[in-house]
TrEMBL record:
<dbReference type="Pfam" id="PF01386">
    <property type="entry name" value="Ribosomal_L25p"/>
</dbReference>
<protein>
    <recommendedName>
        <fullName>Large ribosomal subunit protein bL25</fullName>
    </recommendedName>
</protein>
<dbReference type="InterPro" id="IPR029751">
    <property type="entry name" value="Ribosomal_L25_dom"/>
</dbReference>
<keyword id="KW-0699">rRNA-binding</keyword>
<keyword id="KW-0687">Ribonucleoprotein</keyword>
<dbReference type="GO" id="GO:0005840">
    <property type="term" value="C:ribosome"/>
</dbReference>
<comment type="subunit">
    <text>Part of the 50S ribosomal subunit; part of the 5S rRNA/L5/L18/L25 subcomplex. Contacts the 5S rRNA. Binds to the 5S rRNA independently of L5 and L18.</text>
</comment>
<dbReference type="InterPro" id="IPR011035">
    <property type="entry name" value="Ribosomal_bL25/Gln-tRNA_synth"/>
</dbReference>
<comment type="similarity">
    <text>Belongs to the bacterial ribosomal protein bL25 family.</text>
</comment>
<keyword id="KW-0694">RNA-binding</keyword>
<feature type="domain" description="Large ribosomal subunit protein bL25 L25">
    <location>
        <begin position="5"/>
        <end position="92"/>
    </location>
</feature>
<comment type="function">
    <text>This is one of the proteins that binds to the 5S RNA in the ribosome where it forms part of the central protuberance.</text>
</comment>
<keyword id="KW-0689">Ribosomal protein</keyword>
<dbReference type="InterPro" id="IPR020056">
    <property type="entry name" value="Rbsml_bL25/Gln-tRNA_synth_N"/>
</dbReference>
<dbReference type="InterPro" id="IPR020055">
    <property type="entry name" value="Ribosomal_bL25_short"/>
</dbReference>
<dbReference type="InterPro" id="IPR020930">
    <property type="entry name" value="Ribosomal_uL5_bac-type"/>
</dbReference>
């Protein structure tokens, strides 16, 4: 199954800006890989919370539509809130 997530490039980086994004219902993330520059991204929490519940989310290629351009990635790591059902940060690797 293929998954598509709409995202935008993040310009503000840091703990304070990430907290502001989370309060707005957004999730900060990063896409990185060998030979390519890392890209900081942000997307809506509602776009990923239901998708990540599927087992094949972690093993299949995902498509991130980043500012109108499709990027193929794989989920590398995901940070979750300790007791709330909230995703705090996601790391993706170029596929």
């Amino acid at each position: 199954m293929s998954y598509t997530i709409q995202a935008t490039t993040r310009t503000e980086i840091g703990k304070g800006s990430s907290r502001r994004l989370r309060r707005e219902g957004k999730v900060p993330g990063v896409i990185y890989g060998t030979g390519k520059t890392p890209v900081s991204i942000v997307f809506d929490h509602k776009d990923i919370i239901n998708v990540q519940a599927n087992d094949d989310f972690y093993t299949s290629e995902l498509t991130i539509v980043l500012d109108g351009k499709e990027v193929k990635v794989r989920a590398q790591a995901m940070q979750r809130h300790v007791f709330k059902p909230i995703i705090e940060h996601v790391d993706f690797v170029y596929a």
